[in-house]
Structures are given as C-alpha cells and as structure tokens.
C-alpha cells in the first residue's frame, strides 16, 4: 500500500502518555483493527482513511491517534467495531 510507505517514509512519531516517542508503523494500525474484526473490507477501508489523515502529522499524541481511529470507524458506520475499540482502547483514558 503506497499510503503505508508514505507514512513509514515520513517517520511519524507517536508521543506516548508517559512522554516517550515511538515510531509509528502502519502494521500496528492493521494489527489494532484486526483485534476487532476479521472483515478485510472493514480493515482496508478504515486503514486507508486513517493513514490518509496521519499524513498531515509528523508527531501525534497517542490519545489523539486513538481518537482518529475511533472517529474514522464511526464515520464509516462501523458502529460495532468502533464501540469495541472505544471500550478497549479509549474508555480507560477518559
């Protein structure tokens, strides 16, 4: 996927909650989405939209990244997947 290569080439960094920086890899996104669905169409559509949004960042807070994933799933009307993602990845951070 060209978007994944663009993100990797851009060296997107994620600022974790403890302040440390980690490099983002698109495979992490696919793995996270795969935790909540086995549907390849849902994963691919979500992944493309999320990666497109991330191209405008050089650094992003981990919480903001999770919010982008959640909002994108909701926008695509994958409510069940979005709700599962929210409960597991976001609810405890609010």
From TrEMBL:
Domain ATP-cone: 12-94
GO terms for MF: ATP binding
Family annotation (InterPro entries): ATP-cone_dom
Highest rank taxon of the organism: Bacteria
The entry's keywords: ATP-binding, Nucleotide-binding
UniProt-recorded name of the protein: ATP-cone domain-containing protein
Organism (species): Nicoliella spurrieriana
